[in-house]
Design a protein that fits this description.
The protein is an all-alpha fold. The protein has nine helices and no strands. The longest helix is centred in the middle third of the chain and has 25 residues.
């Protein structure tokens, strides 16, 4: 029986260079792309038993890369506005030019109901997967997705009506991936 790391090596060999180039292309720097690709390989090795058909590997790996990149982007976006845990580096980011943005984010999050706020904070700030949130709260995956969708829509509305921000690139939430 083939071990997971052997299977990964076999499946990765023909597409390694293209996958690495893809990861680098979605990141701002070559180093970030290399890190993203390495993280994707670790995730792929962990999840490899769930891959049923070897022919689907390329698309499956690319989906992992995309999801990891989106999660990194989402966390980076939120960390600019919401320094958590009192660490000094985060507090430094919350000075001068983005103090107003931090306050708007806190006000906007405070207007959400507890269920939507928990889902948004766990998923978009803390980086939890939808399945992890569902398990934690004893909900279905679709219920968590619904809370996330409704919470984001409400945040968009708050940013538009209360703060007059119509450019979603500077708002708290931008589409599905803040």
């Amino acid at each position: 029986m083939e071990l997971s790391h052997q299977r990964l090596r076999r499946l990765l060999a023909p597409i390694h260079d293209r996958g690495l180039a893809f990861a680098r292309s979605v990141c701002r720097s070559r180093d970030d792309g290399d890190d993203l690709f390495q993280e994707a390989l670790v995730r792929a090795l962990d999840k490899l038993p769930s891959l049923r058909e070897d022919q689907a590997f390329r698309g499956w790996l690319y989906r992992i890369i995309i999801n990891l990149h989106r999660n990194r982007t989402r966390r980076a976006f939120w960390r600019r506005f919401l320094p958590l845990g009192g660490d000094e580096a985060a507090d430094d980011r919350a000075t001068d030019e983005n103090v107003g943005a931090v306050e708007r984010a806190r006000i906007a999050l405070a207007t959400l109901g507890p269920e939507q706020r928990e889902a948004i904070v766990l998923h978009d700030i803390e980086g939890w997967r939808v399945e992890e949130i569902a398990e934690l709260e004893g909900l279905s995956v679709s219920a968590v997705k619904s809370r996330l969708s409704r919470g984001r829509e409400r945040l968009r509305d708050i940013y538009t009506r209360r703060f007059g921000i119509h450019d979603h690139t500077t708002s708290l939430v931008r589409g599905e991936t803040p």
